[in-house]
Amino acid sequence: MPELVRTLARPIGKSERTRARLHLLDWLACVAGARQTEAGQLGSVISPYGWEKATYLGNVLEMDDVHRTALLHPGPVIWPAALSLSSADFESCLDAAVRGYEAMIAVGAALDAHHYAHWHPTATAGVFGSAAAFGSLIGFAPVEYENALGNAGSVAGGLWHLRHDDVLTKQWHIYHAVRTGRDAAMHVHRGATGPKGILDGPQGLFSAMTETHGGLASNGDGWLLEQVSFKPWAACRHAHPAIDAAMELRKASKLEAPFRVETYADALTFCDRPDPKTELDAKFSLQHSIAVVADGRDARPEDFTMEAVAALADLRAQVEVSEDPAITARYPVHFGARVNGLDLVDTLGDPERPVGEQAIIAKMEMLGAWGGLKSAQSERAIALALEGDDAPAIAALLEEWLA
After folding, report:
1. Distance CA 295, CA 315 (A)
2. pTM as predicted
């Protein structure tokens, strides 16, 4: 923890703020695309504040950014926290986000496979990220970060049992992480103290929630934000490597049935669903994802609706999935898959195969349209995120979208 809080207290430069703007736009795109969902309807009534409403929307479409080795999605937690102080200027919001990503990823990357089998890391580590982001907004010193992270971590959690039901618990986890971390920081600001050994103490988080654990992640003199991947397709990240390989085969006119998918063990744990019953099932189905690409579709939100599920049943039946131990051994440093013999080690959107600004702009335009926004509204979001310096304008934008 001491090294992490020292990192959080470092100054942040122009390049990190520029990178943060891309992640802000990516998150705004995810929020825009989820406006007309059940979670979007709930989000619109839980709070008068746009940032708080948006906590329910950022992860709905399964297109939120992701850190591979931490196995979590920072954007949906960090951006609401970073935008939650109305008096903060835009540069301070960007700095808060960079620090929030740092804390959330640093803790998440130390968690092990046992943790991931039972706990939702975006929730577990998210409270640390939210506390760091809000602490940055209100000007924390290292000792205050340490106290806030200690209190936030003392109530970290979020069980994966939600995967067994078609419910909104995953969205509730995001809301909980944002509010809990933010409140922890606010209480420390008012004088509360927190346990310094919350991670590796005898009754701390690692002891309670892991079998083994690594050290907290860092990126040397850089920031962990630089390691975060963007998601091009509207499906679980574990399905993305197979989608990517199938897209490459289709581009070469070589994607033909039967379809054989070989991938890592976690991809099967989460996404071996040959007969999806809901839209969420479809987003977590390797079989459906391959069928989407084979049908000439581009893995957009409309390709995972119940209409698409019904239309692609025959193609899904021709998809066989299995684990390749060699691909599992590369994971999670590399999310890979092999489809009909084509082996991809890294996936589009990862740092090794990055997508640029234009791809994130296109994502905003596509998801804005899917969420019912007029093109001018999407263009305004793009301008505010990439070129603007007006944090209240982004807050107003969210309130307008989620009214």
Report:
1. 8
2. 0.96
